[in-house]
Amino acid sequence: MSLLSFCSHEIFLVTASHEGRDSGFIATWIMPATLVPDRPRIVGVFSPQNFTFNLLQQSKKFIVHLLAEDQVDLLPHFGLTSSRNLNKFEGMDVQRSAHGIPIISGTCGYMECQLVDQLDSGDRIICLADVTKEDVDATKKPLRKETAFETLSPEIVQKLIEKRIVDGQRDRQFIKRF
User: HSE-up of 92 (CA within 13 Å, CB side)?
Assistant: First the structure.
């Protein structure tokens, strides 16, 4: 057991678009990166193996949504499938940012971001981004990992756990040793 297993992170959905292709993935490592209120920045830690990350890299723009507690069904939808194989947004209520990036309705809010810099750690890319637009719905309660795992079926939880293990085994070879 890891000390970090006691954490119940908020669950974020990152969306990106480039040259007519849309994609989205679940991210748990999003955090503030400044104390300056009029220049908001975030840090996100993303897998370079992810199709959405490829679109983000090309466009340098993305949207971070904080999922609401009633959006637990979006966790397996965006966390267990790849946009390489299907359109994850088909049939969804999606708005578009000024840059054409999908915005999901019903979240606690979203931040439109501009990539500023990144650090390659091997298995993950640590991205620094400026928040260029923000929309918050203070009436919503954030979805956290613990709540999601209590709400989802045991079969879906097991699939999410197995995917994390498989991704970790795949990514082990990419970790950089300093």
Answer: 20
Determine the Cα–Cα distance for residues 153 and 8; give it in Å rounded to an integer: 18
CA dist 103 to 17, 97, 163, 174, Å? 11, 7, 25, 32
- Are the C-beta atoms of residues 138 and 107 closer than 8 Å to each other? no
Tell me the C-alpha distance between 128 and 31, whole Å: 10
**What is the token pair recorded at 106?**
């019903």
Nearest alpha carbon to residue 77 among 62, 65, 63, 87: 87
For residue 175, give the 3-state DSSP assignment. Answer: coil
Residues of the chain with pLDDT under 50: none
Supply the Cα-derived Rg of the chain in whole angstroms.
16
Distance CA(169)–CA(130), nearest Å, equals: 32
Q: Residues 27, 30, 35, CA angle at the centre, nearest 5°?
A: 170
Strand pairing report for 41-46 and 61-66: unpaired
Contact 45, 129 (CB under 8 A): no
